[in-house]
Amino acid sequence: MSLKFEKKPYFMPVFFSGEDDHGINDTSFHEPADINVISLTYETDREALESIIPDCYELLEPYVNIKFCEFFGCSWMAGKGYTLINVNCPVRFKGERDEMEGDLILVMFENHADPIIGGRDSMGYAKYFAEIPLIEKLNGKFSCKASAWGKPFLEMTVDTNVKASEEDIEEIKKVEGRAKGKFQYKYMPKVREKDEPYEANYTTPDCAYPVVLPAFEKPVDYPYELGASESEWGMGSIKLTPTAWEDWPHGWRIGAGLAKLQPKRIIAARHFTYKDPGVYYTCYILR
Amino acid sequence: MSLKFEKKPYFMPVFFSGEDDHGINDTSFHEPADINVISLTYETDREALESIIPDCYELLEPYVNIKFCEFFGCSWMAGKGYTLINVNCPVRFKGERDEMEGDLILVMFENHADPIIGGRDSMGYAKYFAEIPLIEKLNGKFSCKASAWGKPFLEMTVDTNVKASEEDIEEIKKVEGRAKGKFQYKYMPKVREKDEPYEANYTTPDCAYPVVLPAFEKPVDYPYELGASESEWGMGSIKLTPTAWEDWPHGWRIGAGLAKLQPKRIIAARHFTYKDPGVYYTCYILR
Amino acid sequence: MSLKFEKKPYFMPVFFSGEDDHGINDTSFHEPADINVISLTYETDREALESIIPDCYELLEPYVNIKFCEFFGCSWMAGKGYTLINVNCPVRFKGERDEMEGDLILVMFENHADPIIGGRDSMGYAKYFAEIPLIEKLNGKFSCKASAWGKPFLEMTVDTNVKASEEDIEEIKKVEGRAKGKFQYKYMPKVREKDEPYEANYTTPDCAYPVVLPAFEKPVDYPYELGASESEWGMGSIKLTPTAWEDWPHGWRIGAGLAKLQPKRIIAARHFTYKDPGVYYTCYILR
Amino acid sequence: MSLKFEKKPYFMPVFFSGEDDHGINDTSFHEPADINVISLTYETDREALESIIPDCYELLEPYVNIKFCEFFGCSWMAGKGYTLINVNCPVRFKGERDEMEGDLILVMFENHADPIIGGRDSMGYAKYFAEIPLIEKLNGKFSCKASAWGKPFLEMTVDTNVKASEEDIEEIKKVEGRAKGKFQYKYMPKVREKDEPYEANYTTPDCAYPVVLPAFEKPVDYPYELGASESEWGMGSIKLTPTAWEDWPHGWRIGAGLAKLQPKRIIAARHFTYKDPGVYYTCYILR
């Protein structure tokens, strides 16, 4: 008897895979996690940002939003916690069928390999590992950073003692309120055929398509309370240090690329907490 | 201007990708790493092992080989090091075109996310993260372990004070000498279409094909010395502890599956060191 | 010019030391941290517990209390966070001058070396390093563990779905309400004289005395809010796994010793949060 | 029955202590570890260096030597490994009884808390925790760094492609060959008396004395081979980044102090390996 691929989810290593369910019917996955967030939005160079976005997405405002999120008690991770950084920009998808506004996730750093592997292989989330410590908090000022192989490449502060303008706060609320989902671009390079030269390896895709994870809608019978805290608005700073191959051989292009998206102006920043059940099975291919 | 996918390697996040080369022409990738290995081969239940292997591969001896490998000075990682565990069994691939014997990698644990992501997305290596400390050595006895979220699931010792039989050592040499490459099964689940039910998500593949990384052949003009140390043969022990969803929500099936491959007999074990340049661009799809 | 020891705090390496202040006058040290706690109290064998307590302390109830505490935003650590485990029992100090009831800290595990070194060298806190992940939370059940070199030796759950008896809850409140401070025993072994045999090394003390850190009293002009959340009471479990020299060469006696304090009865457990400013300069020698 | 302090080694927590032996008679402690080293010596400002050295030590050459050492298979740590950085300068101790030349260890960074706590409390080694990755090696160039809370403060390279002058190599050999031991200054601050003001806490010592660990002399009946590899001499670089309280609340004075010892001239650097049994019971108080 050998492994037969049935019509159910498989992930590498396939030899130990064949999931019966990925949380749809498992109520132990549904309790929301507690999430502590510092978020900052800045304006960057429109051309620099547009140059890295595939055609199917249209950049709206030339804004980059960065959220450091501490997750505690994730039911979909059996109650464990971890930290992620979501780097995104506001875009509109316009396809033959779908038209939708949302956040294009340029990269999502996480400090544990398990959610990275899971999110990449399923939804095509642009996840990557980074060392991310706990968010620091001192007298109303929050700070955090991301490092690769011990070298910080992304440092952020949110200072709630410094006030953002009401106008800028409204601008952020408008942009965030408009988003109907999280956009990705799932891509996997193909292994060469035996008779192709080495140079051909990985130069065409196994798959390449846009994906959306729609914003979570609380089911009528959802038994848990959700909701977010009031935002503590403030201003902040962002430091993007370019990385070279020697620093980070597998991921240096990410650090180098982020460093090309330098801030022209910090718009506003904030600290808040919220609850989220982590529902990931609703994503679909955009057409 | 937007991101156009040219004919070159892309990896997620594609927004910061588009590699010019993946080591073929970059001589700084060619210096060999120093590798310290403890290796153990055991016999397991043939049916248990066959049941997890896809049809395209035929199990030869019902052996499981486990290697803990410390890598130091990997040029393909800019001189950095890390640790991996290679769990494999001897198989024959028999397709319409190719017929070949080699090691099917059931799972490869690594203690850093970067080589995991790189190896999964390119060659379809069945890589997964585990916490792997340095190999311990005390009075001729080596030991090491792999843990997930702080819980050990794979513990191995190699004791060079206890002798393996000459016959068993010859058996290992025969099996290892026969292998012409490392076999994988590249698999990526597909995101559902918008009008499919949630349950359909990830139940069909984006790609699903067997792959081989042929054994490295030293080029005529290769400037570095390679070679392996003498093996210090011995015996050893292996402890496979089943894991549950609560222990390891994303990877528990791997720990649970390995625990079904319990040893019936330890054949032999050894410690050795070798040098390897880490050439990964030669892999191809088996047909 | 050379290093002169003035009348101020020095810690090793003394070459880079000579603190001007340790937080007494530095208001940036005074903001409270947010602390997330799971706590469990159990009854153990009275003789086993008494046998490890120095004469100057008298054991009251034969109870062991274990608290896992996640600290976020510690101002005395410049806003950083970490995790500790406080293992303590209720005792009375009775000296020539002082008489006082409080918690004798048998061992305090922390997951970062800096507070360990600081607390040991100043107050003689019985601190030791352990790997301590974030507290897990799933459907009202909390769990956490401590490991040394990758091997768990202390695992604890607190299940708020299971109710403790009112009587037992009152017992815990009585014991905890009575404590007037945290007791320690500061001890440092002395280096031998040149003409003493090697065996004499470290067999007499540089210092050996009981210490108390009095419970924090909020100053009249303290500008921050303190206070604790309501306790979510429940029951729980504790798993103490003995450790051997091979597992944990420097600390194995701690794991082995804790395992001799096995629970005879779980009294009650709870989850709560509180705020604490981390004032450590008030401790003094008990006489 | 209560804890009685007998004439044997105790370490905090004393409740779980009372060692029978610390390796003198335990032959499993005597197998040498394999150590991989990169070492660099530079000249610094004499006055800056003298200003941090206590009177009992006289600075010889104004040199700072920094060694990054990877330890593998330490028998005194049950076969485990770890990494340390030894920052030292050549001094002469001149007391009433003893006169001796050796290396004054200004600070020793280690990447695990257990040897730190052990070495501080016994010999008064100026040990401190730092994050230290594996030594990188790429085309004859070695590099490594030390970080605190994710921020690098000490970065070093040793490039064996660049040659040191014969004269400078001889100078290093002379200085290193002269050393008869490793010098420390054991210091522990005292807890205040109850009636002393808070400001008095820790401002006088529990102990304060110079210590030496004599160079290891191989016993006549020592059964293991020792010895060092040939040195691969080269040149290198050192980067000392000052640290502030916000970066590293407990240890920032160390990073800030090291940054005052900037190199005026790199003398020479090298890579080598050696074997060492880790004998620490021979240290004594200098008089």
Describe the structure.
The structure is a homotetramer of 287-residue chains. With 287 residues, chain A is mainly beta. Chain A has a single domain, classed as Acetoacetate decarboxylase-like, CATH 2.40.400.10. Helix content of chain A is 13%, strand content 41%. Chain A has four helices and 14 strands. Chain A has helices at 46-50, 113-123, 166-178, 252-258; strands at residues 33-43, 57-59, 63-74, 80-94, 99-110, 127-129, 136-138, 141-148, 151-159, 181-189, 205-214, 232-240, 265-276, 284-285. In chain A, strands 1, 2, 3, 4, 5, 6, 7, 8, 9, 10, 11, 12, 13 and 14 form a 14-stranded mixed beta sheet that branches. The longest helix of chain A has 13 residues, at 166-178. The first copy, chain A, is globular, with a radius of gyration of 20 Å. The N and C termini of chain A lie far apart (40 Å). The mean pLDDT of chain A is 95. At the C-D interface, helix 2, strand 6, strand 10, strand 11 and helix 4 of C face helix 2, strand 6, strand 10, strand 11 and helix 4 of D.
List keywords for this structure.
homotetramer, 287 residues, mainly beta, Acetoacetate decarboxylase-like, 14-stranded mixed β-sheet, 41% strand
